[in-house]
Amino acid sequence: MTLLGPVRGTRRIHAINPVAKLTASLLLSVLLLVTIDWVSAAVALVLESILFLWAGLAPRAFFRRTAALWIAAPLAGVTTILYGVPAGQTYLQFGLIHVSDGSIALAVATVLRILAIGLPAVVLFATVDPTDLADGLAQVWHLPSRFVLGALAGIRLVGLFLDDWRQLELARRARGLGDSGRIRRFLNQAFALLVISLRRGSKLATAMEARGFGGDTVRTWARPSPFGGREWLLIAIGAVIGATALTAAVLAGTFRFVIG
Amino acid sequence: MPQTDDASRAHPAPPPAGRVPEGVAAPGARLSAEGWGWRHASRTAWAVRGLDLVIEPGERVLLLGASGAGKSTLAHAFAGVLGGADEGEQEGVLTVDGAEPERIRGRVGMLMQDPDSQLVLARVGDDVAFGCENLGVPRAEIWPRVDEALAAVGLDLPLDRSTSELSGGQKQRVALAGVLAMRPGVVLLDEPTANLDPAGVLDVRDAVAELVRSSRATFVVIEHRVDIWLDVVDRVVVLAPGGGVLADGDPHEVLRERGAELARGGVWVPGHDPLEGRSPRPAHPAGARGVPADVLLTGRELAVARVPGVPVASGLDVDVEAGAALALTGPNGAGKTTLALTLAGLILPEGGELAGSVELTRGTAVRRAARRMLARSPLLTSASPFVWRSRDLLTRIGTVFQDPEHQFVSGTVRGELEVGLRVLKLPEAEIAARVMETAGRLRLDHLLTANPYTLSGGEKRRLSVASALVARPSILILDEPTFGQDSRTWAELVLLLAEQVERGTSAVVVTHDRAFIDALADRELVVGAGGVR
Q: CA nearest A189 in B: which residue?
């Protein structure tokens, strides 16, 4: 399994329209960004953790894919503890560093919030296949097919670029340029990759055109992109989690509107 | 991103989507060019000019011509993908079934050379369906067409198989299926086998031959390997380099009358020896001279890996001898290229030993990045090419990569030849002399100011060989140097490498090309699949 590729499977979550997953995670993010406090984030995180059992990811895959968040969230927390706006009792002061009640509370809220927004997004997208997402964006949201399919075809080239980069690196060593400064070598190599990618891209565009892409005929879609009850259910779950979290914060009196 | 063609507003109906019993049996289209010509916007010379040609519905045509005769330009024009007025200048009239090709996209299906740039989508079924979707074929009709098209090219793959996991020959057949699913009236094949190994070439040829039997579509194939297609086509058209048609008619007749001329122009004509009877290695094989050769590089129990920890071949014993040519052969994926790049000092051996001779190692130094590795790994010594500095490799082991574009580092042909010599800090006079000598030897002297990326396939290959040779390495390693080359370039490569070997250079060549091995190699090492040998 690579981290870039989608997780495939037969569970219900795999079959849900990617557009619904995108909508649900956007909705949840927006709701959780309204306030910055620890209660709302904690409530959301607890509710989400229960749902992760149905996310279609084995525990190993779950932690591998979310590894970046587990590293980023504590880092953001530490930074907030040290440099957050001071309030309440100050425990430590050193130059710009202020550790206070306020900065600690803010740090906890930040860590929880990054996880509460990031984890569901990563988990939902782990089971999204780019082709299915493109189908959904074009058929459900009616984004222009030219744009959606162009982007999709471009994604496929990324894997080839990785191979190209490695070949370029070996070739530079073979040609006697491997001893020069790292930055200079990188720039030379990056330029070569750019040239090769542009050429590949234009060949791909021609191949697409040769198969009738970009004509005036109204395009059909070989794969249906159904959007029904279970898609709405997923979006509703996202909305309910967000609303519950906000309500809990208001009731607990910790609600802090972000703007103003 | 494809270009919008605002001239194609009034779009006629897509190809008849009726239920033809044989899925691929759309009626053939008629191709016609009258006084047609095309000049790319960036060039002063016309790619094609004054061309009069009619191809009747259902004809099977092999389109030949020396490289630069405008064959691909013509195919692109018939497919309607040449681009608008900002891409170039057009004269005369070119039509498909009496209409401008841009207006009836989908009536013409085209398959091109590079398998990686042919496939659009990530899954086999989706990719085959892509053309149908663009033509507005109803969904219910698309999937039966996809199944039919895959069966027609002889592929039995699950529809959700990832296209990136396929071999080159399979990729080309998937792309061909995508063309067929559109039920085109014309199938244009522009060097469809140039980037494939011999097995892939036959797969694609057989798939096309089968189609030609069952289909009513017009077929036009461009290819410089005549023998592959001779039994499939019923007409040969030879384009003249300056413009117009040089010969046209029954394949065997045209080859009888024009065979020698075509062969000189680089076309592979059956019965014409590209070497014209010259013997590249008079004293070949090396053992015949009775002198034991100097071994420059010794590999014992070598295991090689592209990704560290995942060996693709192991237990390899290799002796790279001065004045001898070694061919590395074996099936796809056996690790031939990985072995070659390991011998070249570019990849760290996964296991076993690889060491240069005292002679070869003299004067090298351990590069900074490899110092710690050397101290830690019991397998590496200061005689391992992998630890040498990049500049040490130049005069010891030259490498010619499979794709010449990967090794271009400069904006001009001259710069490409000079770059290594400057690293070696040779005097200017010496640099100039060597560049002129090598460029002359490989017919690149008229291209010294050209950009390497704008060269033709054969010129790129010659430049990649020249840029390694110019530093005069003791060992020359080449990866599939003859892939997709015309017969003239092929013969030049054989003669040049033979000359180098006779002078004492060691050549190590990864190749599938039997004729090349027969003409050049002293020994052959068959790299087995799955690491067992």
A: B409
Residues in B closer than 8 angstroms to A208, CB to CB, are: 2, 120, 130
- Distance (Å, whole) CA B399 – CA B117: 26
Nearest-CA neighbor of A40 among A51, A56, A29? A29
B517 in A contact zone (CB under 8 Å): no
CB-CB contact of B153 with B109 (8 Å)? no
Which residues contact residue B504 at a Cβ distance below 8 angstroms, ignoring those fewer than 6 apart?
B322, B323
Q: How far apart are CA A125 and CA A110, in angstroms?
A: 22
| Token pair for B461 | 């290959």
pLDDT of residue B532: 35
Q: In what order do the strands lie in the sheet with B325-329?
A: B397-400, B475-479, B506-510, B325-329, B523-526
How many angstroms separate the CA of residue B191 from the nearest CA in chain A? Answer: 14
Which one, of B55, B431, B422, B491, lies nearest residue B264 by Cα?
A: B491
Residues B101, B109 contacting (CB under 8 angstroms): no
pLDDT at res. A234: 93
Task: Provide the 3-class DSSP secondary structure of residue B172.
Answer: helix
- Would you call A153 an interface residue with chain B, using a CB distance cutoff of 8 Å? yes
Q: Return the amino acid letter for A90.
A: T
Structure tokens at B300: 């014992």
The answer to whether the CB of B397 falls within 8 A of the CB of B384 is no
- Take residue B332 and report the two structure tokens written for it: 């796809």
Could you tell me how far CA A224 lies from the centroid of its own chain? 25
User: CB-based contact (8 Å) between A171 and chain B?
Assistant: yes
How deeply is A151 buried, as exposed, middle or buried, from its count of CB atoms within 10 A (0-12, 13-18, 19+)?
Answer: middle
pLDDT beneath 70: ranges in chain B: 1-25, 283-292, 529-533
Confidence of residue A91 (pLDDT cuts 50, 70, 90): confident
**Which A residues 20-79 touch B at CB under 8 Å?**
none
Q: For an interface test with A, which of B409, B455, B464 has the most A Cβ atoms less than 10 Å from its Cβ? A: B409
Q: Which residues of B touch A199 (CB under 8 A)?
A: 405, 453
* Concatenated DSSP letters of A162-217: HHHHHHHHHHHHHTT-TTS-HHHHHHHHHHHHHHHHHHHHHHHHHHHHHTTTTSSS
Considering only residues 180 to 219 of chain A, which have any Cβ-Cβ distance to chain B shorter than 8 Å?
188, 192, 195-196, 199-201, 203-219
Among candidates B5, B106, B393 on the partner chain, residue whose Cβ is nearest the Cβ of A212:
B106
- CB A135, CB A114: distance < 8 Å: no
Higher pLDDT, residue A178 or A215: A178
Residue A137 to residue A50: CA distance in whole angstroms: 29
Overall pTM surpassing 0.90 (yes/no): no
- Alpha-carbon span B468 to B512, nearest angstrom: 22
Q: For residues B96 and B107, is the Cβ–Cβ distance under 8 A?
A: yes
Contact yes or no for B417/B466 (Cβ under 8 A): yes
